[in-house]
Amino acid sequence: MTDTPLDHMAAERAKILDAALAHVPFEGWTPRTLRLAAEDAGLDPVVAELAFPGGPADAIEYWSTVADVAMRIAYEQADTDAMRLREKITFLVRARIEAVADHREAVRRAITHMSRPPYARRGVRALYRTVDDMWYAAGDRSTDFSFYTKRATLAGVLSSTVLFWLDDRSEGSAETWAFLDRRIANVMQIPKRRAAVRDLGKNLPDPRRFARLVAERLREGAAR
């Protein structure tokens, strides 16, 4: 939402969002929540409609953008030069979750809200922007087909990790970070498995058997 004509209301949007996060666990992401938040911020409730003309979906998408910025700042401030690619991606996923960690119930309700048919495309668009930011920050400048497969794969990792985190009550979210490490390790192994199966295929006389072997290997990777 930062590249819209509403940039002149950036301060108001930030104030309303901050106040709204306290109401969402009880009120949900609703127009009433935004009006109450505007009042809490010392603004006329009408300002909520001007700041977020698309209603709660606008506010959620704006919050996603704010969290993306916090993630990039955390990454830029960290010592990432010596990190391997998988370590960079792991750091970014963790930083993105930590950017919203104080508002777990608001995240849960945001996911529910944006999964509804009227808003699903906007939810996917926000997710795409997040994973695109992650790959770009990690140094990915690909322009071939892998550009899309990398983002789709990371979207799956991020989404599954967030869903795990929502119900994680371990100290310091330790179980979530262990889950994230396993997901990243599994994803990183898939290209290697594909290459290994492709090499084996040169010596397989039956193409159908080869196809079954590929499917089995990929299912094994997805199941871990």
Folded structure, characterized:
The chain is mainly alpha-helical. The chain has helices spanning 10-27, 31-40, 46-51, 56-77, 85-98, 104-114, 120-137, 146-166, 174-201, 207-223. The protein is globular.
Task: Provide the descriptors you would attach to this structure in a database record.
mainly alpha; globular; 224 residues; 10 helices; Tetracycline Repressor, domain 2
- The average pLDDT value, as a whole number, equals 86
Oligomerization status of the protein chains: single chain
The rough form would be described as globular
CATH topology of the largest domain: Tetracycline Repressor, domain 2
Q: Helicity, in percent?
A: over 70%
Poorly predicted ranges: 193-210
Short note summarizing the structure:
With 224 residues, the chain is mostly helical. The chain has 10 helices and no strands.
SSE layout and pairings?
Blueprint: H1 10-27, H2 31-40, H3 46-51, H4 56-77, H5 85-98, H6 104-114, H7 120-137, H8 146-166, H9 174-201, H10 207-223
